[in-house]
Amino acid sequence: MTLPRAIAAFVLLSALNLALMVPGGIVETRSFPDYSVTVLAAFNVFLTVLGLGSLILGYRILRSGQAGAMPLFAGIGYVAVYGLDLAEIFPVSAAPMSLALFTMEWIGTVLGAALIALSVTHLSRGGSSAADRPALSAPTIGALVVLTLGIVVFATWSAM
């Protein structure tokens, strides 16, 4: 397996792991009534962009064989999100974290750390740039915006 393919695999596994933890879903059952709708929505926008962006990124890496620096930033995002929650810094809930959520967040942290390590290795070896990739089409962008809004509304509503 080439390094870009390994990076793509970790990006896609990270996105899948995150998707399973959507508030109101099977694993994330905590509520956060002490946060404003604005804070919850902003956090859910970040998580949704990270997750959907990772799906797109993983697909594009597999298709082009080029990884660039974006997987590094995604890995940092995953580690930061899970690290803050595991350290009980943000978001803070009165309800305790379930064992399933705790386990999945640790798995996500390990996946994110591995993604960072693979990305740094790839970039230090003169890893390929993502600059020459074609942009997404307007209908695809429109569909992603609608999907993002739906996910953010659902997740924010469920977290309140």
Structure description:
With 160 residues, this protein is an all-alpha fold. It has one domain. The chain contains 5 helices and no strands. It has helices at 3-19, 37-64, 70-86, 99-124, 138-159. Helix 1 (3-19) runs antiparallel to helix 2, helix 1 runs antiparallel to helix 4 and helix 3 packs antiparallel against helix 4 (99-124). The protein is globular, with a radius of gyration of 16 Å. The model has no long low-confidence stretch (mean pLDDT 91).
**General shape:** globular
As residue ranges, the low-confidence spans are none
- Topology as H/E string? HHHHH
CA radius of gyration: 16 Å
- Say how many strands there are: 0
Beta-strand content bin: under 5%
Helix content: 55-70%
Mean pLDDT, all residues: 91
Alpha plus pi helix count:
5
